[in-house]
Structures are given as structure tokens and as C-alpha cells.
Amino acid sequence: TKAYFLNYYKQTSKLIVNKLSVKMVTKFLKNIITYLFVGLLHVTTVVHADEVYKVSADDALTIIVFGEKDLSFSGIKVGTDGNLSFPLIGDVLVTGLTTSQIEEKIETLLKDGYLKKPRVTVSIQEYRSIYIYGEVRRPGAYPYQKDLTIEKAIVLAGGLTARASDDKVSVVHESEPEKVVKTKRNARLSPGDIVTIEESFF
User: Fold this and answer.
1) Helix (H, G, I), strand (E, B) or coil at 162
2) Model-level pTM greater than 0.90?
3) In 53-122, where does DSSP find H-type helix?
4) What sign for the dihedral angle of Cα 176, 100, 42, 37?
5) 3-state DSSP helix/strand/coil percent for the chain, to nearest 5?
């Protein structure tokens, strides 16, 4: 009888352990799949944003030519004329192009007598600045950050002065330099935008 109960206890313990193991493994796999999905979604969003974004003067790029260390650079800035200086192929006009278009352009230029099958990747390392003026404590240029709003830009500029208006905010988008848009503080900014915080008269 003692041996029977001992054997029964062992078999039951193994069954419980196996069930727990299956549950733990299942939970672990679910967590891994969730993390991979979220990571992939984040990467896809970032890549998509870079592909849509059009490069302009003062943007800093990372350019990698696979297998060619001498042709790979980090933080190469686009000049005020819209060009970037690149070894072998000289000045390359990139303003108004997406990162994917720049990749294709550099690959095409490198194929013309320099490399047989160049593979190039281009990404944005640092966006050009936004500008905030008017009733802020430290008006001037500040580096653009993704998802930057006017409210966050005000914080970067040291906050509002005592004379600042609560609702009189305007922005000039780089894409429409002649148009002044009245907006709110939760509005999102793009690289090159100019924000003005007006004075309150009450």
C-alpha cells in the first residue's frame, strides 16, 4: 500500500509538473511573439516615416555602403545648397528626396565605373532644427525630435514669459513659407518649422 501511494504521488507530481511546464512554455512563447510584433511594428513605423520624409538642408544622414568602410559615414550633413559631398561621385543633390530615393541615386552613381553591385542604406541621424520665437525665455533654434509638439518646443525654449498669450500661437511650415497658420500648443511640428508665441494684451 505504501509503495502504491508513493508511486501514485510520483506519477501525479510528474503530471502537475508537465502541466505547469506546458503553461509556462506557452506563456513564454506568447510573450516572445508579443514583443516581436511590437518591435516589428515600431521598426516598420520608423522606416515608413523615414521613407516618406523628404530630406533638406542641415539634415544629418547615416550612409552605409555594404562592404565599403571608406564609403560609409555617420552624421554627414546636407549642405545649404541641398548637396552632400560623397567620395568618388562628388556632390549629390538630395534635397527633396526620401531616404529610399537617395539610396537608389547613390547606388546608380556608384555603378557608373566604381562598384559592380553597390548596396546602400540611408537613414536620418538628426533632423534639421525647428525655430521658436516670441514670448519664450530662450528663443532660437532647437533640434527637431520625432513627435515634437509646440508645447514640447516651449519647454525646450525655457518656458513662457509672463507676457505670453495662452492661445495666440502661430506656425510657418517650411513647405509653405508664405503662409502663417494660427494653431494650438498640442499641434505637431515638422523639421524647419517656425513657431511664434504672441504676447497677451490682457
Assistant:
1) coil
2) no
3) 99-111
4) positive
5) 35, 30, 35
